[in-house]
Amino acid sequence: AKALGNIGPQGRYAVPSLTNALDAGNAELRKEAVIALGKIGYPSQQSTKALTRSLKDPIAEVRLEVIQALMKNNSSTPDVIAGLETLVEKERNKEIKKTAEKAILQLKSL
Question: How far apart are CA 89 and CA 45, in angstroms?
Fold first, then answer.
């Protein structure tokens, strides 16, 4: 996943595989898949939906990377905004909450 993200936009062929990795049992793999999706910058409907679901990941680091990836991909669909707003309401981690609030402002301005 890490190597695919370093390829950049040319790595868009890997988006389906990276999206599937978001459901992996391994938190490090999920995190690296999220980072790669952000670096590739190819926000397909499939990847945007999967990233939005991943806002509920049990691991804080993964949730933080998901927010970053959504911002990098300028994913401003109503579902993304709603997912971020729900995260802000329920999140206990102050850094994640603050980053989600920033993301909402950025994505709503697009």
Answer: 25
Q: Of 55, 58, 10, whose CA–CA distance to 34 is shortest?
A: 55
Q: What is the pTM of this model?
A: 0.91
Structure confidence at residue 3 as a pLDDT band (50, 70, 90): low
Place of tokens 């993964």: 62
Give residue-wise pLDDT tens across range 58-104: 999 999 999 999 999 999 999 999 999 999 999 999 999 999 999 99
